[in-house]
Sequence to fold (348 residues):
Amino acid sequence: MLVLGIETSCDETAAALVADGVRVRSNVVSSQLDHAAYGGVVPEIAARRHVESLPSVVAAAFDEAGVEWSDIGGIGVTRGPGLVGALLAGWCYGRGASRSLGVPYVGVNHLAAHVHGALMPVLEAGDRVAYPLLALIVSGGHTTLYRLPTEAEFRRAGGTLDDAAGEAFDKVATLLGLGYPGGPIIDRLADGGDAGAVKLPRARLESPFDFSFSGLKAAVRREALRQELEPWVGEGPGCGDHVDSRILDLVASFQRAVLDMLESATDAALRQFPSRGLVVAGGVAANRGLRARMEALAARHDLPLYLSPVELATDNAAMVAGQAHRRLAAGEADTFDQTVRARWPLGA
Ligand code: KG4
Ligand code: ZN
Fold:
């Protein structure tokens, strides 16, 4: 069955066509650039841009896949968690298309979709995934460890007490004037710095499965003030631009601290909860340093690693279509009286 996926929970307008939940026929993502000037996502602007972009993004997804509306058997739309206005833009579009085509639609949990995205390559290859799994979802909105006793069950093992890891990347980049979103910029700049140059704190929390990044962020700010670092002024550094080496050292040290915390909590959870595989999903899973750490960690535990391919790590609609397919294939559909959910913890 060919499923149209739609994703509008934050600042990416995305549409994708996926066959049988795993074969990606097209995956179109339009990132809204308007938020860069504000250093973060402005909800009203996000919702408006989704409404404007959806028709052309969906048309591009059909074009790229070389199929017609009449070829699809269902529609999957992100129902939550996310920004209400942004979610509603995709929800209403998907619901309208479902009504007019007479095909079923289902609302998908964005976090479950991230996990599905990490599993897609293995499922596409026809390999079986053994449960229980441990999943680290690490993005701009979430940093959470879940246990998955089965494919459909999610039990929260721990999570951030304050900022999400991606949010910390974004805020540190903004405070140093490096641009937005900060994750990919810091990922790149960290290569040029000495990660041992600046001593930064790692949060020590009551639960070894929890995270906290706000103290680290404050320490970066203090360090920038102490060293009287001049924030970068402009659009954010381009590839050939010269960035103060002290800023490079600071972001490299910051990234190492984030990765240390992500790794140690995941390691503790793998020691505590019997797992037959490790899933790493969400936008920060695109980080090269994190990918290397998680590969080494899974190898130490002698476990298969289900690491999101980079194009399925940051927000996209292929993971949404894939996750929707599970329910559509079972003949399930959502009814038209439902609406979006700004908060929607997995397993609730
Ligand atoms: O999953 P995602 O696209 O959206 C949410 O559901 O939040 O994640 C976006 C987050 C942003 O905070 C962005 O800075 C971060 O993922 N991110 C990265 C990288 N690419 C994206 N963080 C670190 N390194 C990267 N390469
Ligand atoms: Zn996401």
Remarks:
- The radius of gyration is 20 Å.
- The longest strand covers residues 23-31.
- The CA atoms of residues 92 and 262 lie 36 Å apart.
